[in-house]
Amino acid sequence: MKMHRLMAVAAAAVLALGVAGCGGGSSDTSANPAVDTSASFAAGTTMAKLNKAQSIRIGTKFDQPLFGLKGLDGKPAGFDVEIAEVIAGKLGIPASKIQWVETPSKVREDYLAQDRVDLVVATYTINGERKKKVDFAGPYYMAGQDIMVKKGDSSITGPESFRSGDKKVCSVTGSTPAGKIREYLKDPASQLVLFDVYSKCADALRTGQVDAVTTDNVILLGLVDQSKGAFQLVGKPFTQEPYGIGLRKGDTAFRSFVDDTLEAAQKDGSYARAWKDTAGKVDAQTPTLPTIDRY
Amino acid sequence: MQVLVDNVDVFARGLYVTLQLCLLSALGALVLGTVLAAMRISPVPPLRWLGTAYVTVVRNTPLTIVFFVAAFGLPQLGSNADFLRIPGLDRLFVRLGTDLPFFRFAILALTVYTAAFVCEALRAGVNAVQPGQAEAGRSLGLTFLQNLRLVVLPQAGQATVVPLGSVVIAMIKNSALAGIFGVTGDLMQVSDDLVSARGLPLVPVFVGIAAGYLLLTVPLGLWLDRIERRRVVAR
Q1: CA distance A43 to A41
Q2: CA-CA 20 to 30 A from A179: which of A7, A137, B192, B197?
Q3: Which one-letter DSSP state was computed for residue B61?
Q4: Residues in chain A within 8 Å Cβ distance of B76
């Protein structure tokens, strides 16, 4: 009898997990992407190759809530994933034919160079150092350092709120945002707390040891999502981190195709829909596509 | 090694924070440890039980857990360890009085943890005093505390200096954990500042940090050696 009960509990747990997994998936809810079945491309281009193969390998994060997070159904979901599906659709490849590859920050350039992925859409900040190794289409999203506070706290309106010296802020040791926020602090010894992970910062915010947590808004959005309404974003990023789509160095035709696709997605509303289905659940301000940098 | 020379001010600031942390924690641990030792050897059974229970629990818990309880458990209970904002002392040690409680939490964790070891070191010293001494004191009509203060502890001190020194040195090194639990700017945290944020090479930075801890521990060890030698001569 005892055994039976144990199995029932296990079965219930599995069921609950399964349901939770479905809730997080986006594939069944979004109308994205429209697959362009009549797409045709000039012979010899990357687009033609991919269209003919009816398959594409796309690198994304598997652990970034709201942008690229792999659920229990084995498929990543998030804004990056939706954007990638829009591009695949324009290539005439349905979402089900995409091979998702996990690309954590450290391996993104290498995976492109080693031809292990065709595209990288993985909260990938465009910068000069990286441009030496890969090409970037986009930017498709402008991230930036933001501030997270307790729900309903209007006393912090931006980084300037820390100048008076009575507000305390938490970030992660050695990170760029931690260095940036120091510029706004009156006395770091009594205002700044650094932990090794953001979850500890969130805990300190919940119990009131700090008044705010600061880092890239994308990470903060994930924390707000997990907090079940306990936290909110100030919503005024004070640095600029343009996210681009990484592709192999020198493939200019493919790059301008992705650029065109992004602009078309902004026009036909699939860009806004991609946001609303994912990160928009936490951040209702739908961004507009930043000006594409066609270098 | 140019890194060390260029950033000597950063290391010095870290060293200063660690020194403050260690001074206060050592002070707290010595006081609390003495009280605990007195409890463990007292003639009152409930006090003995309490002292024994404290030592058993705290000494056998990993320091990281003690830190966790202090830095994340206390806030859950609504405490910011404000009782450590001791007037006067917070002038001398500014961090004691700030709104950020993590420096106080670290002192609390180190004190609570180290006190158990201090207690056992003191008890070992007391046990080394011949029972006849305490019996003689008692027969002279001294109370328990008088006996402890005037007869037993002064003699126990001799046997205690060495193990007590080891306990304090271990505590100084243990203080390296504080940086993980919200204390900013201590010696160990210097590495994050210099290596992660400013991209300096790892090895020279850690050589500098090691040197910082040695600067605290080695003189303490030498001083203890001297005290020990002097005591031996005095006997």
Answers
A1: 6
A2: A137
A3: S
A4: 207
| Angle CA A108–A23–A198, to nearest 5 | 50
Amino acid at A77: A
Q: Please provide the average confidence, as pLDDT, over all residues in chain B.
A: 88
pTM of the model: 0.73
Q: How far is CA B211 from CA B88, B103, B165, B168, B219, in A?
A: 32, 23, 19, 18, 12
With a CB cutoff of 8 Å and minimum separation 6, the contacts of A162 are A156, A169, A181, A184, A185, A186, A191, A212
pLDDT at B109: 96
Q: What value of ipTM does the predicted structure carry?
A: 0.75
Which secondary-structure segment (H or E) carries A275? helix A270-277
Q: Tokens 């506070």 map to which residue?
A: A149
In chain B, the residue whose alpha carbon lies closest to the alpha carbon of A193 is: B182
Q: pLDDT tens across A40-73, in order? A: 788 888 898 999 899 999 999 998 888 888 888 8
The residue-averaged pLDDT of B44-65 equals 95
Please say whether the beta carbons of A62 and A70 come within 8 A: yes
Distance from CA of A117 to the nearest CA of B (A): 29
* Nearest CB partner across the interface for A188, out of B99, B102, B184: B184
Give which of A211, A200, A213, A220 is closest to A282, Cα–Cα: A220
- The two beta strands, A63-64 and A56-60, are unpaired
DSSP codes of every residue in A31-93: -PPPP-TT----TTSHHHHHHHHT-EEEEE-SEETTTEEE-TTS-EESHHHHHHHHHHHHTT-
Strands A169-172 and A212-216 come out as parallel
- Strands of the sheet with A134-143, listed across from one edge: A98-102, A56-60, A119-120, A241-248, A134-143
Least confident of A14-18, B111-115, B200-204: A14-18
Residues 6 or more apart from A242 whose CB is under 8 A from it?
A125, A126, A138, A139, A141, A142, A143, A290, A293
Asked whether B208 and B3 are in contact (CB, 8 A), the reply is: yes
Residue A27 pLDDT class (50, 70, 90 cuts)? very low
For residue A174, give the nearest of B100, B180, B192 by CB distance: B192
- Give per-residue pLDDT as tens, B159-200: 888 899 999 999 999 999 998 888 888 888 887 778 776 777
Structure token digits, residue B138: 């008692």
Q: What is the mean pLDDT of residues B65-79?
A: 90
Helices (H) and strands (E) in chain A, counts: 11, 13
Is B75 within 8 Å of A207 when comparing Cβ atoms?
yes
Q: Sort out which chain A residues have CB atoms less than 8 A from B95's CB and list them.
A: 189-190
Mean pLDDT of B93-98: 76
